[in-house]
Amino acid sequence: MKKKRTFKNIFENALFLPLYVLVRHLPRKAALWLGAGFGRLLGRFMSSKRRIATNNMAKAFPELSEAELRQRINAMFVHIGKSVMEMLRLDLFRKTDLGDIFHVKGLENLQQAYDCNRGVIVLSGHVGFWEVGTFLFPMLGFPFDFVGKRMKNPLADRFITRLRESAGGRCIDSKSGARKVLKSLNEKRGVAVLIDQHRSSREGVAVPFFNRPAMTTPIISRLAMKYQIPVVPVFSYRTADDNYDVEIQPMFFLQDEPESSVEENTALLTSIIEEAIRKDETQWLWLHRRWR
What is the dihedral of CA 276, 219, 162, 144, to 10 degrees? Predict the structure, then answer.
């Protein structure tokens, strides 16, 4: 098994490195044009993933016709392709891009949460350009970390981690769990946690998500309730001209009271993510097997 993984890593690296070099030498608009084409190819040849995405969206939005579903799934794959290109260029963004490419609304909400001096939990999901916080908030002067899953390919993982940390944020391995997240919060840092992916029954709790039960990590609820950490929802949407609207919503606290359970608060957080997805359903990762 280890030998198979090694050969697979070599093959993946042979594809990844030339793409990485090419994308970083192209102008941003050309890279995004390439990404759109890459996304269309993914949509055409990843038939099993396309079926999963179509089935998921059909159940979440039963009012959509087959033609409407097809159009939205096509748009999702284009969005994914463009996001891959942006990911490979993360460290090329500069502060001057904050007004030109990234339009931030509600920055005062994040500042208010930091002023509580307890650390900040940033709630988000795989909506729009979800990597935005890894460089945007450190650039704006906010100490910031983010929870992410390490890639199986060590070379690709090193590249992506370096890109994510290029602006001064720190990547927390999701396997470290609450311990390292709490450490960052104790250092009065912000921590972004994406809670819209499946967790096993051992790790998660079942909460409604698009009218279906979905196993969800309760890490935010438990930490926010126990230590009264402010929670700030943040979502970044791609616009028609390939800029981004970054929406920072007002902070709130989760009450640690007998009538407020971890499950109820996790359901509340999940409903916020669902509402964000409904603003533009083409910008969520529907090909993930969220419901199992």
Answer: 80
Span 91-106, average pLDDT: 90
pTM above 0.85, yes or no: yes
Residue 242, exposed/middle/buried by CB under 10 A (0-12, 13-18, 19+)? middle
Is residue 31 within 8 A of residue 84, CB to CB? The reply is no
Give the whole-angstrom CA distance, residue 174 versus residue 172: 6
Residues in contact with 1: Cβ distance below 8 Å, sequence separation at least 6, in sequence order: none
Q: Which CB contacts under 8 angstroms, 24+ apart, belong to 60-66? A: 60/210, 60/211, 60/281, 61/281
pLDDT confidence of residue 152: 81
> Where along the chain do its domains lie?
2-283
Give the orientation angle of helix 28-45 with respect to helix 47-60, to 10 degrees. 90
The identity of residue 18, as a single letter, is P
